[in-house]
Amino acid sequence: MATTKKITPKPKIAQQKHIMEKTIKKSSAKTSQSPKKIEPTKKSNTSLSVGPLGVKPYELKKNESYMTDGQLRHFEEILNLWKQQLMQEVDRTIYDLQDVTNYSDPVDRASQEEEFNVRLRERDRERKLLKKIDEALASIQNGDYGYCDECGAEIGIRRLEARPTATQCIECKTIAEIREKQIGG
Ligand SMILES: [Zn+2]
Question: Can you identify the CATH homologous superfamily of domain 69-184?
Answer without folding.
Answer: DksA, coiled-coil domain (1.20.120.910)
